[in-house]
Write a structure and sequence with these properties.
By secondary structure, the protein is mainly beta. 11% of the residues lie in helices and 30% in strands. The longest helix has 8 residues. The protein binds the ligand Nc1nc2c(c(=O)[nH]1)N[C@H]1C(S)=C(S)[C@@H](COP(=O)(O)O)O[C@H]1N2 and molybdenum atom. The site of molybdenum atom (MO) has 7 residues, from loops.
Length: 203
């Protein structure tokens, strides 16, 4: 739980819904979460397995969008990414985790962040199953990274040696996106660019 806000952020009462590529219809019978790439064993889980059988972690933490709004004290619940990585047996060459989604949205994060203690694949926010608007069936959540890394409608977690741009990184958003270091844009620009046209168009 954040005692204070990261630099350049302000609290708002509610989430603003961003769905740049639309909200996909999800057929739970065929839906699978896949763990792929530089692993000893590729994995596949149904939604039911994830919410009923896998270890879970729950905590309260804030959510921060790079455009400057933050939501205080959200209750998160999900499967630790670390646990999934252990099951898959991540190879030492892996440096990045790429989140890929049913709507085509993609977000890369450094492996250190993806395997940090509070990094989860969330299936609940504030005690409820994710709504379609909030990313049903799953979204990763890593409290110290900006919200654009919380890729809604997650379907694949890929471990990779190489960095790849995702949906927002193509437009200059940061490879890592740490909220406390104010990593909003590639090249280390922080709030200097907050009023740029790029920010106006962002999610
Ligand atoms: N699939 C998908 N995931 C996404 C986005 C999106 O447009 N599509 N927007 C991102 C951004 S910029 C933010 S701030 C959060 C917003 O989460 P919310 O829509 O639940 O408020 O989702 C992130 N994940
Ligand atoms: Mo965002």
């Amino acid at each position: 739980m954040a005692e204070n806000l990261p630099p350049g952020q302000r609290y708002v009462r509610r989430f603003i819904i961003y769905s740049a590529l639309g909200i996909p219809e999800v057929g739970l019978d065929s839906y699978r979460l896949r763990v792929t790439g530089l692993v000893e064993r590729e994995l596949e889980y149904s939604y039911r397995e994830i919410v009923e059988k896998l270890p879970r972690l729950s905590y309260v933490d804030d959510f921060h969008c790079v455009t400057g709004w933050s939501v205080k004290e959200v209750i998160w619940e999900g499967v630790p990414l670390r646990w999934l990585a252990e099951q898959a047996g991540v190879r030492p060459e892996a440096r990045w985790v790429v989140f890929r989604c049913l709507d085509g949205y993609v977000a890369p994060v450094p492996i250190e962040d993806a395997l940090s203690e509070r990094a989860i694949v969330a299936f609940k926010m504030n005690g409820s199953v994710l709504s379609p608007e909030h990313g049903f069936p799953l979204r990763p959540f890593i409290p110290h990274l900006y919200g654009w890394k919380s890729a809604k409608h997650l379907s694949e977690i890929e471990f990779s040696a190489e960095y790849v741009d995702g949906f927002w990184e193509v437009h200059g958003y940061h490879e890592r996106g740490d909220v406390w270091a104010e990593e909003r844009f590639k090249g280390g620009f922080g709030r200097h660019l907050r009023r740029s046209p790029l920010v106006g168009r962002s999610g």
